Write a sequence for this structure.
């Protein structure tokens, strides 16, 4: 079994209660990563820190951080100066308030982490978890992580607590900045009715295990085939049909959804009958 290492240890403050906690990443990316190679010889290319003014490579000990406050004008900051910034939440997750989860629009959620108790914090941790579950609330607080003060939401998740970093309100782009969002069209009542029927016909409980990254699987299969010297067949993606008659497209979609549901029901009935037959012959 793989053991995940904590990325942060500190305290969670809940009123006058202080709970020692650890923070673990709750998600992991499964993207296929590529390296850049030199076409002629296949050697991985190096990224070099180069100064065009001095015309030479720059070692790490000569690199400083700079903020461009005007075009071509920078303010430099050393690691010591960054560390000297007074942060009220350094080393702790400070709970500031509580809210209903439904009040937080999903656009605000960034990354999720498991929040576990550290030594001596089990009882207070369990108390907070049970209180949040009983009140159906999420805790809103702040956490300084990787030189940034994050707004966070903490909620019960299975047998523990889940901490999600949130975007601040000024980090959410105004929808009015997207001119195409101002749609001007007329929807016929029958079109709306059929769209609702289609949504209801395709509705089912969300089970994330039912969905897979098909592109990633196909990409990995292509990589495996090329590694084994096999020829990779070329496949052309079919462009979606252009919708000319919206009502006709909705009608065909409804028929397709009904057929799909009928097909998925048949194997379940067959497997049940097969199971019953096996039980009889035991």
């Amino acid at each position: 079994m793989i053991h995940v290492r904590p990325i942060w240890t500190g305290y969670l403050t809940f009123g006058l209660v202080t709970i020692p906690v650890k923070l673990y990443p709750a998600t992991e990316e499964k993207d296929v990563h590529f390296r850049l190679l030199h076409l002629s010889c296949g050697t991985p290319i190096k990224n070099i820190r180069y100064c065009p003014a001095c015309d030479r490579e720059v070692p790490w000990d000569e690199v400083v951080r700079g903020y461009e406050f005007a075009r071509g004008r920078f303010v430099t900051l050393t690691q010591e100066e960054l560390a000297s910034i007074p942060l009220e939440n350094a080393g702790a997750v400070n709970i500031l308030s509580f809210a209903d989860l439904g009040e937080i629009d999903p656009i605000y959620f960034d990354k999720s982490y498991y929040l576990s108790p550290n030594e001596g914090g089990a009882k207070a941790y369990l108390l907070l978890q049970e209180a949040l579950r009983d009140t159906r609330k999420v805790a809103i607080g702040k956490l300084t992580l990787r030189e940034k003060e994050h707004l966070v939401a903490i909620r019960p998740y299975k047998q523990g607590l889940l901490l999600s970093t949130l975007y601040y309100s000024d980090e959410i782009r105004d929808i009015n900045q997207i001119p195409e969002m101002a749609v001007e069209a007329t929807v016929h009542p029958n079109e709306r009715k059929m769209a609702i029927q289609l949504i209801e016909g395709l509705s089912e409980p969300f089970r994330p295990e039912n969905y897979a990254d098909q592109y990633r699987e196909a990409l990995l299969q292509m990589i495996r085939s090329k590694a084994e010297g096999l020829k990779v067949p070329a496949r052309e993606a079919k462009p979606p049909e252009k919708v000319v008659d919206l009502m006709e497209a909705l009608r065909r979609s409804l028929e397709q959804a009904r057929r799909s549901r009928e097909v998925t029901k048949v194997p379940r009935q067959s497997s049940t009958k097969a199971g019953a037959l096996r039980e009889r012959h035991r």
Q: What stands out?
A: Residues 187-199+246-261 form one domain.
